[in-house]
Design brief:
Layout lengths: L1 H27 L8 H9 L5 H20 L10 H18 L8 H25 L5 H13 L3 H24 L13 H27 L3
Helix pairs in contact: 1-4, 1-5, 2-3, 2-7, 3-4, 3-6, 5-8, 6-7
């Protein structure tokens, strides 16, 4: 029981760190990660609904897709993705609130925030995966698609990221006449590409450090 509680605590810390990365990327105004593009763009149009709310809504859609793809093979344990979606969504809103008064006044600061997002996200993802407790629907959906189709996970990941960015850009173009956001708030730009490419690469550096830390807490 203590081990289970420990794993959920570590996983929740991981989700908080990932959520903080989402908030940092939005604050950078240089572009957010592909998986955060739809919630961020929708929030620009429907401002009364928070980014976090749109995030958990999107994750619920991912879970429905898993059910459709897996059918009877969908396990009850996969339903843990539902509370994880709510936890992560509201953590995103909390982190956005924490950074609400932070001002980013130059391109250099934007890049600093973008790089910080890469590092923070890499650390958070490692904790989430290592804890093996909360399951976020985004990555799980890619695993399901890979299992069902036999396609390589890496190829599906790239295609999925491109799809999320494209549909977000199309919505922004239709809603605001600018593919990158609403003309003031940037959701899709070079930061999006940086996060898509370098987060995985950064994990090659941060993972060994995190593994040493996790060993100290017997996880």
């Amino acid at each position: 029981m203590k081990d289970l509680i420990k794993r959920y605590i570590v996983a929740t810390v991981g989700l908080f760190i990932i959520a903080f990365g989402v908030a940092l990327s939005l604050k950078s105004n240089l572009g957010t990660a592909p998986v955060s593009c739809p919630p961020a763009v929708l929030n620009l149009k429907f401002t009364t609904i928070s980014v976090g709310t749109f995030t958990w809504m999107m994750h619920l859609v991912f879970i429905i897709c898993q059910i459709i793809l897996l059918g009877r093979k969908f396990k009850l344990s996969f339903l843990m993705q539902i509370p994880a979606a709510f936890v992560f969504g509201y953590l995103c809103d909390a982190c956005i609130w924490i950074l609400r008064d932070v001002q980013v006044t130059s391109y250099a600061m934007q890049m600093v925030f973008c790089i910080l997002t890469v590092i923070v996200t890499a650390v958070g993802v490692k904790l989430e995966i290592a804890a093996n407790a909360w399951m976020l629907a985004g990555e799980k959906t890619l695993v399901v698609i890979s299992d069902v189709t036999g396609w390589k996970f890496s190829n599906i990941k790239v295609a999925f990221d491109i799809y999320l960015v494209v549909i977000s850009a199309l919505f922004a173009q239709l809603a605001f006449g600018v593919f990158s956001g609403d003309g003031v708030h940037i959701v899709i730009r070079e930061g999006t590409l940086i996060l898509a490419v370098f987060t995985g690469l950064c994990m090659k550096v941060t993972d060994p450090v995190m593994e040493k830390l996790l060993k100290k807490i017997n996880l």
